[in-house]
Amino acid sequence: MANESTLRATTQSEWLKFRSVRSSIMGVAVTVLLTIGLGVLITTLVRTHWTQLSPLRIATFDPVSSSLRGSLFAQFAVGVIGTLFITSEYTSGSIRTTLTAVPNRFRLIAGKCIVLFVSMLILGEFVCFAAFLIGQRIYLGVVPTASITNGTVLQSVILAGLYLALLALFAFALGLILRQSAAAISVFVSVLLIVPIIGLFFPQNWQNDFMRFEPSTLGVSMQSPFAPSNSFGAWSATLILLAYVAGTMAIAVVLFVRRDAGSNQ
Is residue 265 part of a domain? Predict the structure, then answer.
C-alpha cells in the first residue's frame, strides 16, 4: 500500500506539473487544431472535387482514413509535448529538485509515463473521434460514408488515437535519452519525416520492405480499415509500434538510472 500511495502521489504531482506548463497547453491546442481542422479541410476538399475523381480513385476511396488524415500532422505536436515533458526539466535544472522529492527514479518515470500516456490517449481519442464524425457529416449525401457502429471502422478510429499516445511516449523516451529539447525533437522529426524521404532513394524492393516499418507508415495502417499495399495490418502495425516504444523506453530508463541528474551527457 505504501508503494501504491507513493506512486499515486508522484502521478498526481506530475499531473499538476503537466497541466500547468505552457508548452503542454499549446501542444494540446495545436493537436486539436491539426487533427480536427485539417480533417475538416481535407474532407471538404474531397467533397468539392468528388465528381472530378477517376473511377479507380472512387472505387478505392477510404472515407475513414481520409477524415483522420490530420492526425498524421498532429503527430509532430504530440511529439513536442512528450519531449518537453522531460527535457524542460533538464533545461531549467528542476530535474534535481524533482529527484530530491522523488528519489526513486523508476517511480518517477512511471508517474510521468502514466500522466503522459493517459492524457495523450484521452486527447488522441477525442480529436480522432471528432475528426471522423465531422468528416462523415461533411461527406453525407455526396461521398460514400462509414459508420462508427461498424467494428472495423471503430477499431480504426480508436487505433488512430492510440497512435498519437504511443508517439508521445516515444518522444518522451527520446527526450530522456538525449536530455536536450532541440536534439530530441530533431531526432523525432527525422524518424517520422526525413527517414521516409531518404527511403525514396532506395531501390523499389528495398522501399517496400523498409517503408512499412517506418512509424508514420504504421500509423497509416493503424487508422485504415483496409491494409494499405505493402503494409502491415492494423494490429500488426500496432504491435510493431509498441515494440519501438518499449525498446526506446527501456534504453531511456537504463540511462536515466545510471547517469547523473544534472548531466546532459
Answer: no
pTM for this entry: 0.92
Domain count, the chain: 1
In a domain, 35, yes or no: yes
Sign for the CA dihedral angle at 175, 181, 185, 187 comes to: negative
Alpha helices, DSSP H, located in the chain: 2-20, 22-32, 38-48, 55-59, 63-67, 71-92, 95-101, 105-139, 151-178, 181-189, 195-199, 204-211, 215-222, 234-258
Please count the other Cβ atoms lying within 10 Å of the Cβ belonging to residue 18.
17
Q: pLDDT (tens digit, 9 = 90+) per residue, 187-240?
A: 999 999 988 888 777 777 777 778 889 999 999 999 998 877 778 999 999 999
Residue 232 domain flag: yes
| Count of all residues that appear for the chain in the document | 265
- Look at residues 221, 199, 241, 188 and name the one whose alpha carbon lies nearest to residue 76: 188
Give a yes or no: residue 80 inside a domain: yes
Find the domain containing 161 and state its range. Answer: 2-258
